[in-house]
Amino acid sequence: MGRRRPDPHGVATPRSARRQVEHPLVGADVDSGSAADYVLRLIHLKAYADGASRAIGRTILDIGCNDGYGTVLLAATARRTTGIDVSPAAISAARRRPEATGIDFRVVDGDQLPFPDHSFDVVTAFQVIEHITDVGPFLAEVRRVTAPGGTVVFTTPNAAIRLDPGMAPWNPFHVREYTAEELRHELSQLGATIRVRGLFGPPPVARTEVARAAAARDRARHPRPWPVRVAIGLLPEAARNRLRSLRGRTEPADPFSVRSFGVDDLWYADVELDVALDLQAVCAVAPQRDPST
């Protein structure tokens, strides 16, 4: 990945594209059997369910589409849908989906989006911004391809429930995680009207996600001894990803109660953002002004 350089947030910052390539496929439409993974799946799918309600009859760009599990939901209501990801493996998996007919899936790696100005009515970037090292150029490109009067929607993990103050992200693929206020400040570069909301769920769902984050935070506070880390680093990438997944699972006392809930049981709200399970920012781009007025 090349040489790493420090950044103001105290985390290593290789090129975000390289880190994204290594990110495993989300597989949010596959049940792993873990209650913690089930809740994480609900969190990811809720963003796309909300996005689909904004996509009706509109042109959509889904940035960081991974294996297309959510892009196909957007396409069900959109007029035209494009999904992009830096991972060739992810795009290959997305194109193999039976529902992918008519969706333009592309491998896009770099700071420039290969689309004309004002190409899309809605741009979604779900669980993406936390991977980006140079956020300014990324946001400038997002703003460029969004049509006047269009909407850009981001989701990202909520640092307030995941990290101690000043703590680097424990997720190895994340460059920076945001609180609600930090996210609002970062996105102010878009020059749009920004509404930051939090994602909430029923108590069993919330407890499961908070427990998963707390367990990961505790492991980050007390890392493995260096010989163990070296040994793990020698494992194949697939084995390392599997180990991360197993290490991250935290089952609630009654996992079956979690599985009784679905995407429609989660909701976004503007209050108590410091305890939200996830963050959403809806950015409304101003419509084009009529020069005759």
Write the layout of secondary structure elements.
Layout: H1 16-22, H2 35-54, E1 59-63, H3 71-75, E2 80-85, H4 88-95, E3 104-107, E4 120-126, H5 135-145, E5 146-156, H6 159-162, H7 180-187, E6 193-200, H8 203-221, H9 226-233, H10 237-247, H11 255-258, E7 267-269, E8 278-284
Parallel strand pairs: 1-2, 1-4, 2-3, 4-5
Antiparallel strand pairs: 5-8, 6-7, 6-8
Helix pairs in contact: 2-8
Report what the structure shows.
This protein has a single domain, classed as Rossmann fold, CATH 3.40.50.150. Helices cover 36% and strands 17% of the residues. The protein has 11 helices and 8 strands. It has an 8-stranded mixed β-sheet. Helix 2 packs across helix 8. The longest helix has 20 residues. The chain is globular, with a radius of gyration of 19 Å.
Short description:
By secondary structure, the chain is an alpha/beta fold. It has eleven helices and eight strands.
* CATH superfamily (homologous) name: Vaccinia Virus protein VP39
State the secondary-structure class: alpha/beta
CATH first level: Alpha Beta
Rg for CA atoms = 19 Å
| Oligomeric status | single chain
**Uncertain residue ranges:** 1-22
Count of spatially separate domains: 1
Q: What integer is the average pLDDT? A: 85
H-E string: HHEHEHEEHEHHEHHHHEE
Principal-axes geometry comes out as: globular
Q: Main beta sheet: strand number and arrangement?
A: 8 strands, mixed
CATH fold descriptor: Rossmann fold
Total strand count, please? Answer: 8
Distance between the termini: 52 Å
Major beta sheet, strand line-up: 3-2-1-4-5-8-6-7
